[in-house]
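Q: I have 111 residues here and want to know how they pack in 3D. Can you give me a structure?
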Amino acid sequence: MGKPLGLGSVKIKVDRVKTREFVLCNDTVEYRETEKEYSIEEIERQIDKTKKNIAQFLKITKLDNGIENISYPRVAKNDDKGYTWFVENRKGGKIKQSLPHILDDDITLKG
């Protein structure tokens, strides 16, 4: 589920990286927490950009993707009600048109 358009923005900032482990040692559970040194370059090298969820995240957080106007689908030119298209699209109990997949090259609706 995504965040609805127009309800603010999200910023992700990494302040520190920690690993947490639960280890069984001599029939006792030990909790270990280690703070890791990191650099942006090191993290970028370790990210597998071919994984679907990573590719999706990178695409939706890329601000220079050339898309100028991101909006909900509209029924009419000046329709500012975001839900209208969704209501019309499900009339009669059948979905008439699916939204494009986030990884599609063309993310516009064709109808």
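Q: Anything worth noting?
A: Helices lie at 40-46, 52-60, 84-89. The chain has a mean pLDDT of 81.
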